Automatic annotation (TrEMBL):
This is Proteasome lid subunit RPN8/RPN11. Residues 6-139 form the MPN domain. Pfam families: Prok-JAB (PF14464). One of its GO terms (biological process) is proteolysis. GO terms for cellular component: proteasome complex. The lineage of its organism: Bacteria, Bacillati, Bacillota, Bacilli, Bacillales. Gene3D superfamilies: Cytidine Deaminase, domain 2 (3.40.140.10). InterPro entries: JAB_dom_prok, JAMM/MPN+_dom, MPN, VirAsm_ModProt. One of its GO terms (molecular function) is zinc ion binding. Keywords: Hydrolase, Metal-binding, Metalloprotease, Protease, Proteasome, Zinc. It comes from Paraliobacillus ryukyuensis. It comes from the Bacteria.
Amino acid sequence: MKNNTITLTEQLYQQLCNHAKNCLPNEACGLISGNGNFVKSVFHLPNTSSSINRFYIKEQHVAKALHQISEKNEEVLAIYHTHPSSQATPSTSDLVNHPTSDVKMMILSLKQQPYPIQCYQVNHLSYTPISIVIKEGGISLCHNVES
Ligand SMILES: [Zn+2]
């Protein structure tokens, strides 16, 4: 679904921020799922590259998360990762490695407080910002996917 707004609950935003801080100095990453443009779940996935400026997610972790997402009747909306010390804009390697234009890219920056979060529609090496609405309340879930 191609729409220009994505809605995230305040609760999930806080969980993303906490997970991001726990992963420092490395980048944190994972999958964001929901229905339509409404984010319902966040899956924290291990960053197997353990890097301060790269992330790599193992296929088995993606498969596990995809399975849980389909069991919840949700769809993958975005792949998220953090930028521990730079702005929430995609790097060249982020664009090159983004697997599909069907899924958006979400970046949380820890460069300043409150942590800026941005979402993008990525088409090959170009990207368009998508606005994010952070809503108070709501029910949303956060999962840790381990090996
Ligand atoms: Zn990045």
